[in-house]
Amino acid sequence: xxxxxxxxQFLSMRLRSGTxxxxxxxxxxxxxxxxxxxGCIGWVAMLFFSAGDQTPIFVTALSIALPxxxxxxxxxxxxxxxxxxxxxxxxxxxxxxxxxxLFKVEVLLRITTCAELLLPLTGMAVGLLRNPSxxxxxxxxxxxxxxxxxxxxxxxxxxxxxxxxxxxxxxxxRELLMILLVTVAVLPQIMLATRIKxxxxxSLAPSQVFWPWAAVAHLVTGDAVLLALPxxxxxxxxxxxxxxxxxERTLQFDGAAIRRPERQGKTDGVMERLYRLPGRxxxxxxxxxxxxxxxxxxxxxxxxxxxxxxxxFGVIVFLPMxxxxxxxxxxxxxxxxxxxxxxxxxxxxxxxxAFGFDRSAAQGYFSWPVRFRDVLIAKNLAVWAMLLPQVLxxxxxxQIAHLGAGPGKIVxxxxxxxxxxxxxxxLGNYCSVRIPRAMNPEKMNQVTNKMQALTxxxxxxxxxxxxxxxxxxxxxxxxxIFWAIMAIAAIVGAIFYWVGLDSSVxxxxxxxxxxxxxxxxKSDGPLSIT
Length: 530
Hints:
530 residues, mainly alpha, two-stranded antiparallel ribbon
């Protein structure tokens, strides 16, 4: 039974029949590059832990590094809005499958969430085995400790995912959960950027053996084994119990029963005025289509969470490079860098797959008296309208972190984001028509590996005009050259967007229409890739 479900998982990850060989090669190359990057980290870890003269600091180094590994393991799927492969328990309850078998499969599928972290852990273990001060005589402790740490995180990830997917359906808890996650993730970076003493920060990640990461650190280095081994096994048992508890609750959970009906908004409320604001400046049907997109996104909890993350998680990624007292590109341009990162994050559930939330209703765009060109433009303008408040929120975060975010920098950021969005939206429109995928608003996300790979590969190319403008300002120390290049980038971007729009409309109105509508009409099976 377990083998059959896992086989279905691996078959679902294969390319479907009819997929072009170019797409297969592209996905293979981008996936290989991603794992090569983590393989390099594993190689560095192997070299570090192989050095015999560094052995005295191994416990301290691991006690500091492993907490960040655990944090990444648990939060990276949320930051990327991707929870890997999962079982739709409601669709499998009709089958005579034991709960224990389903739980084992769910845990095994968690390996697909952050499989890249196994490479640095493997490098750490190999380095410790090659270390002359430890060597193979400590191999049971090194291998056992590494396996315990990986299993602990996989089990914790399974329980965390089950908990989050239930909480995300509770209207009263989802925003509170988002605030809590953002606070936990941002707090270490804020502490690093402020004047808090280094000793205070390190004290939050102690090397006492009763912490799960420290227990593993002591265990793999052969230090205080009699205390480290029971502590590590205790945390492994706790992660198993938590994961099994959350799995049982999810198995009995009925999301439809607790979902509250949408509240009727006031016709003269602030949100209603914001929704109808496009109608004051744009003609119909463009204004109506934009209003429809804004209302749709505002009602989808998953989008609200990703949008909030796009406003705050840039701090997590870039704040270590923006410490107070340091000068450089990132510090001088923190606001546009973070906002461009937010634009990239929104792509997975907006412009890269613009019709994902429409699903089968997308056929209306081909039967209503509206041009398909206007539909794509309206979807792009709706996303762009949401980027303006995002810039203001990120600017507020930058002010709190003592980074430059004055009125001039805000205006510059708005222009830079607008120019960059021309390139992103153009390619996104084409992908939305060529490789659409239906998305379920109730799930955290359903992002294909192809979309993730395309985002990573396209980012350097699509941001090249903006990068050239900033490089020119740094090299020539001239604002005039910067704005001149930005003007050229805007003109080229407008042409690129217009040509891409024509290509997308032509593809949608041609033979690709039936394939597009068929893909958007498909529903999830018992095993979904999210």
